[in-house]
Amino acid sequence: MNDLKSPRGIDRTPREIGLLQRQRDSEEEAFTRPLEWSLITRLISYTKPIAFKRNLLIALTLVRAIQLPLLAWMVGSIIAGPIAQFDTDLLFWSVAGYLLLAFSTDFLFHFRQRFAQEIGETVVKTLRSEIFEAVQRQPMAFFQRVKLGSIIGRMTSDVQTLRTAIQDVFFVSIVQVGILVFAASLMAYTDLVMFAIVAALAPILWAINRHFRSRLSQSSRQTQESFSRVTANLAESVNGIRITQGFARESRNADLFRALIVDHARFNMMLARTSALLIPLLELNSQFFIALLLFVGGWRTLDGAMEIADLIRFFFLANLCFGPIQTLGSQFNQALIAMAGAERVFKLIDQEPDWTDAPSAQALPAKDASGIEVEFRDVTFSYVAGKPVLHDINFKAEAGQSIALVGHTGSGKSSILNLVSKFYLPDKGQIKLDGQDLLNLTSDSIHDQMGIVTQQNFLFSGTVLDNIRMPRPEASEAEVQKILLELDCDDLVEDLSHGLHTDVGERGASLSLGQRQLVCFARAMLANPRLLILDEATSAIDSLTEAKLQTALERLLLGRTSFIVAHRLSTIRKADLVLVLDKGRIVERGTHDKLLQAGGPYATLCQNFSS
Ligand SMILES: Nc1ncnc2c1ncn2[C@@H]1O[C@H](COP(=O)(O)OP(=O)(O)OP(=O)(O)O)[C@@H](O)[C@H]1O
């Protein structure tokens, strides 16, 4: 906990400690895992759509694995052969042969690069769409459990490690192993004693390389993570600057930011120290090898046990061996990192939703111009097992009725909406839509006949037209205009700089609150739902817009069954049934007038509603 202390010795608030603690949490995710055949074969199966190119690439790679050591061997042989023998003709033809081989090697290299990139791209694009589909089919509870950051992590850094594995590690390793085997065979053929020395020392070089590479990549990941905490904190600080200044929190926030950059600097220094140790050590290793080979090779040549030409050839080949030993070390490390990434990505893709529609579920029959009849019978519901938030809920909404849900915060209003929408399933009891048990109806058919307007008035990036047309992208602009006219808010479009084609900005930021809500009403109206779920906005809106919203809402509700978490007296007054909730139970029900007369909990609550 020591490094969580503030630089000025001030005790941190739980939020500050939490922020630094997140670093530990993310580090707990496995960074590497051993090679696993099932993960490797599954990953390779993603290259099936371009199997021909993949196989061609394997063949090209094998040829390249022979070409590279052959080039080195040729250099050694030309020096030891025609040059040592002063044979000009042979020198000319040998160099021409060398050039021909070099040209064909690089010609193939061009295709190796291109095909590898294509294979990587194919795998990445399939994985990303599979992740997206897997996330989309999850029920609501999943999104409360899983952090957005972790889904983004799967989609970006983990998929990136898999790209590296499939497009580089696999093919680079084939080439390097090929070079190693081919060069080793030529070395063994040239001089067995010298080869034995290289073979004995190679594992030491490999082990040193592996050790430092894995430390290096661990440090590099920690550095990246600490930097993303710095940027996340900066974004939060800038976005929340009003609150920061309003509560005079600048100095504490600056402390926290300083702690994060100190943390980042610490990881950066660790990374620099590790690489400053690794690179000279590797260089020293190679030089130590060369010194040893020079000594033994020189001794054997002087002793007459070895030809000088063989010694030259051997040196070229030995040099060629050092590269693959080091490269294979780092590729192996990448492969282990990719295994951890693959495990996380496939776990997300394979994640079965907590529940799905029953196989026998039928579509809710669509009826024109009438609302859905909704009935709750003894419904109990909990988000967390054993902690029910709704108890014995009973009510019936006739087709076309509007039901207002009122109650203190946390009383269970949104939970009822979640159940009607089949975003969650009840623990006990029954919910019936048009007389059929919700469990026997498909979610899609319910959502097709349902419209939702939330308090946040969520808009997607794009134009006003795109947002209104979301439930029916094929709707014409004229249809959208007609909807706006029906809602009596066609002047909304006239006020906007580019009419229906005005860009709404990020999350609708360039529209006013009232305009955003009208867009959401128009969106719901275009869907022409039989059931409308509405969480009435609480934000203060000027009285003119307010009146417009009320008119639009009345028109939207006409002929549909609606459930409204109501905050305005005007909405509640018009509701056919008001359900008063308290601690997950319906404590009163009736019309506004009746409930007001009764003088119970509703009458008390009423004083808080805006008119
Ligand atoms: N996803 C969730 N996981 C666990 N508990 C939840 C979840 N959502 C709501 N709750 C709990 O369920 C209870 C009812 O919440 P609900 O959101 O239905 O109340 P509400 O009346 O709509 O409140 P508000 O008016 O503040 O929106 C609360 O105690 C709340 O803490």
Automatic annotation (TrEMBL):
**Domain of life here?**
Bacteria
Record domain ABC transporter: where: 374-608
Q: Which residue intervals define the domain ABC transmembrane type-1 in the entry?
A: 56-334
Name the Pfam families on file: ABC_membrane, ABC_tran
Gene3D superfamilies given in the database record: ABC transporter type 1, transmembrane domain, P-loop containing nucleotide triphosphate hydrolases
In the UniProt record, which is one GO cellular component term? plasma membrane
User: Which UniProt keyword terms apply here?
Assistant: ATP-binding, Cell membrane, Membrane, Nucleotide-binding, Transmembrane, Transmembrane helix, Transport
Chief place of localization: membrane
- Cell compartments where the protein resides: Cell membrane
Q: Which GO terms describe its molecular function?
A: ABC-type oligopeptide transporter activity; ATP binding; ATP hydrolysis activity
Stated membrane topology is: Multi-pass membrane protein
Any stretches that span the bilayer, and where are they? 56-84, 90-109, 169-187, 193-212, 276-299
In Swiss-Prot or TrEMBL terms, this protein is called ABC transporter ATP-binding protein
- What broad taxonomic lineage does this protein's source fall under? Bacteria, Pseudomonadati, Verrucomicrobiota, Opitutia, Puniceicoccales
